[in-house]
Amino acid sequence: MDQIDKRNRLNDEPFRFRQNKNNTVFLDYNGKQVKILKGKDAEKFLKKMNDAEDEKSRQLIMAKITGNFKRGNERL
């Protein structure tokens, strides 16, 4: 895990997810929605989240699902 998150960004827990009654999953990054998962993708995501060992593993799963949308040159 240390090789994946070298700058310890996942320790701040920037990712959150919400699930509605239709099993649609909404992924948020720092309070902003970045991805929506439906159907089999949502089911597979929820299974991975239930099987995760700790919060850092959950954060890594959400980071991988959201894809490469952060490049490091964004303004704060």
Notes on the protein architecture:
- This protein has 76 residues and is of the alpha+beta class.
- The protein is built from two helices and three strands, in the order E-E-E-H-H.
- It has helices at 39-51, 55-66, and strands spanning 15-19, 25-29, 32-37.
- It has a three-stranded antiparallel sheet.
- It starts with 14 loop residues before the first strand and ends in a 10-residue tail after the last helix.
Number of helices in the DSSP assignment: 2
Helix content: 25-40%
Q: Give the strand line-up of the largest sheet.
A: 1-2-3
| Helix/strand order | EEEHH
User: Which structural class is indicated by helix and strand composition?
Assistant: alpha+beta
Global outline: globular
Low-confidence stretches: none
- Percent range for β-strand residues: 15-25%
Taking all Cα atoms into account, the compactness measure Rg is 13 Å
Number of strands: 3
The pLDDT mean sits at 87
| Head-to-tail CA distance between termini | 26 Å
Describe the largest sheet.
3 strands, antiparallel
Key words describing this protein structure:
76 residues; 2 helices; 33% helix
Could you give a short description of this structure?
The protein has 76 residues and is α+β, with helices and mostly antiparallel strands. It is built from 2 helices and 3 strands, in the order E-E-E-H-H.
Write the SSE topology.
Blueprint: E1 15-19, E2 25-29, E3 32-37, H1 39-51, H2 55-66
Antiparallel strand pairs: 1-2, 2-3
